[in-house]
Write a structure and sequence with these properties.
By secondary structure, the chain is an all-alpha fold. The protein has ten helices and no strands. Helices cover 68% and strands 0% of the residues. It starts with 18 loop residues before the first helix and ends in a 10-residue tail after the last helix.
Length: 217
């Protein structure tokens, strides 16, 4: 039997409305995961899916618009993960910690999305203005969480946007280290990374004036 390196693709005629766009997003993520962003081309993605250039351009005009769609998909899922984590213990120290863990876990589970989301963000926003709205919606989850904690007197009453930018920057650094393997190849599947996240968040809470006694309110 001839060797098969990739699963069979649907013929173009089998794609229903909306399916091809989703398939192109999945193919883009697959390529970025395996070979990096530079290896992605719209033409190659279409060839692997067995669709014509005309069909491709109905959905994406070029590689950048495809990457912008990947980033939008990532930010929408990212926002949902952050909200879900916060809602488990909203307004508490525990909720803050859960959100930080969810942030890094999203990056580790979705490294292709994460790299695109934060790789060439401004250029991609020029290609798809709705990307900025999706990114801001994810950021707003953190701003609103910190505002809630300010009201509960768990953090200092500083500018919540500035606070959120500080928190985001610290946790983003952890996420990038994690997906680049700086904590070791097994860290994402062990308690080591979760322990480091908790430690970083405890230090962060001290920095923004949170009581570090440890009990969730």
């Amino acid at each position: 039997m001839p060797e098969t390196t990739r699963p069979a693709r649907k013929p173009a005629s089998q794609y229903h409305h909306g399916d091809l766009r989703r398939a192109l997003l999945q193919e883009a993520v697959r390529t970025i995961t395996e070979d990096g962003v530079d290896a992605l081309t719209l033409r190659e993605a279409g060839r692997r899916l067995g669709v014509s250039r005309t069909a491709l351009y109905r959905h994406f005009s070029d590689k950048s618009t495809l990457l912008a769609a990947v980033a939008r998909d990532g930010f929408q899922r990212f926002r949902d993960d952050l909200l879900r984590a916060w809602s488990e213990a909203a307004g508490t120290r525990r909720g803050f910690e859960l959100m930080g863990v969810a942030y890094v876990r999203f990056a580790v589970a979705n490294p292709a999305h994460y790299r695109v989301m934060f790789g060439d963000y401004r250029h991609l926003c020029d290609k798809d203005p709705e990307l900025k709205a999706d990114a801001e919606a994810a950021f707003r989850v953190l701003v609103e969480a910190l505002t809630s904690m300010q009201q509960a007197k768990l953090v200092r009453a500083d500018d919540p946007v500035l606070q959120a930018e500080f928190v985001w920057a610290v946790v983003h650094g952890l996420a990038m280290f994690a997906i680049d393997g700086q904590f070791g190849p097994e860290s994402s599947t062990s308690g080591e990374l979760a322990g480091l996240i908790r430690y970083a968040l405890q230090c962060m809470r001290t920095g923004i004036g949170v009581d570090t006694a440890g009990a969730a309110r």
